[in-house]
Amino acid sequence: MLAVTVEITVRLLPIPESARLILASFPSIRDAGNAVTRLIARGIIPAGLEFMDRMAIEAAEAYAHCGYPTDAEALLLSELDGCPAEVEQQIGTTSAVFTACNARELRVARDEAERLLLWKGRKSAFPAVGRISPDYYCMDGTIPRRRLADVLERIEELSREYQLPVANVFHAGDGNLHPLILFDANHPGELERTLAMGSRILRLCIEVGGAITGEHGVGVEKINEMCVQFTEAELRQFHALKAAFDPPGLMNPGKAVPTLQRCAEFGAMHVHQGKEPFPDLERF
Amino acid sequence: MLAVTVEITVRLLPIPESARLILASFPSIRDAGNAVTRLIARGIIPAGLEFMDRMAIEAAEAYAHCGYPTDAEALLLSELDGCPAEVEQQIGTTSAVFTACNARELRVARDEAERLLLWKGRKSAFPAVGRISPDYYCMDGTIPRRRLADVLERIEELSREYQLPVANVFHAGDGNLHPLILFDANHPGELERTLAMGSRILRLCIEVGGAITGEHGVGVEKINEMCVQFTEAELRQFHALKAAFDPPGLMNPGKAVPTLQRCAEFGAMHVHQGKEPFPDLERF
């Protein structure tokens, strides 16, 4: 958008001395969401803190046979790393927090083989979900971690409203959601319904104080939602900034930052369908 | 420069469970510089890693009576914090690195009272130097940590060339130098010589791949050295960026980024004095 990269300097971090993984299953999404919030509030900064809901757990287990508890509504995988004594202490704190948040099963990987097996399920969750649905649409939004449970419940409501299943598997530790909307592009209208639901999820992220991007960019896919996340003044500022680096507009033209004309049309489109422009905005 | 701050969100970090301080004295500035380089290369990230040279040590000891070894050419104070077991391990690694770099005395603060006393000397170093000189000029530049020893030796050479004593006390862990040039503004010409020497130190930071600022800004004081650190194209870009946020130029006008006209005059001034514009640039 603003530059051509000609050189990259990397900062190397030492490989941690030890790493241990803890798995916890929960009877509800809300319990797992609360566990994330409370763990972070305790000052624990895990190397990984991954969330999977029932659909993601079932798909991953069927594919990777990693021993996940398939009766759980939600699962957290938390990896702690550092010097062995510190990791030991943090495993204790993490277990206590998870237990206080109604964790049903609590399992610390006994050895490196079990640690890698438990990770295998998470790492293959996306292709595993691909096996149970002809298509899926992967979202990428970010929310304040304390709103995790609220947002996951709202996504469940949207799933019912749009009649499209959703699998949730994401980086809970940094509030970065990846809802996967399952659909079949061969069914007329289903792709359109999926895209509309995806936009609702992104606007939900904005509502609760988050953003429409996590670890991926805006590109052209989420350019309309930029009209919701930012004010007219902010969008004007983005364009001025872009012009300062690229006066003739040669770098990635038309991406990431919508024109104000486009935002006006996007707002009008929603009104035309007989809805408020952004119906979710006032609800939280 | 670019905005008016109307709101600040702070990120709170938990207070570390434990903190231990280690003091090491060295027979030469080069040994202490090497110790910093090697410690960082070992992957240790101390909470504090402070460097003091002989003049700073003597001034601080005379003022704070904190038990510093006054026969040393350089002193490092390294604080490790975290969980007690990790801190213990890192104290061991730090001691080994310092010993391998010819540390003469190695002292781990026995208790909180000694830790605070050893810090007291470092923290009062600036006012302590103020007691031994009518005026001092405090620089703020940054260099790659591996060049610490080279740069400190060059500063010693500059001290002899300009006949102005220099006390060094700074944050070695992040390569942020704070040479204090001691002078007396009542002696005719001494202020001018001090400013000229300060500029040489900043240009030395640039030569070795560093920057003219560390934890403080450019303002008007270091605006000429911006002409050395950045190319004409970069300076033009800074001005374009500033204009994108502040078209009428109301915010901090004339600060931080020099006009190209000013840079031309700064270069000409050096040529006029019969020197190359920036004599240090080729030496390293």
What does this structure look like?
2 copies of one chain form a homodimer. Chain A has 284 residues and is of the alpha+beta class. Chain A contains 10 helices and 9 strands. The first copy, chain A, has a 7-stranded antiparallel beta sheet with strand order 4-1-3-2-7-9-5, with helices on both faces. Chain A has a two-stranded antiparallel sheet with strand order 6-8. The longest helix of chain A has 18 residues. The radius of gyration of chain A is 21 Å and the shape is globular. At the A-B interface, helix 3 and helix 9 of A face helix 3 and helix 9 of B.
Total helical elements of chain A: 10
How does the major sheet of chain A shape up? 7 strands, antiparallel
End-to-end separation of chain A in angstroms reads: 33 Å
Query: Which sequence of SSEs, written as H and E, runs from N to C of chain A?
Result: EHEHEHEHHEEHEEEHHHH
Main features:
alpha+beta, homodimer, 9 strands, globular, 10 helices, 284 residues
Task: Give the SSE map.
Two copies of one chain form a homodimer.
Chain A: E1 18-26, H1 29-41, E2 48-53, H2 54-64, E3 74-82, H3 84-100, E4 106-108, H4 112-123, H5 125-132, E5 135-138, E6 141-142, H6 148-162, E7 166-171, E8 176-177, E9 179-183, H7 190-207, H8 223-229, H9 232-245, H10 260-272
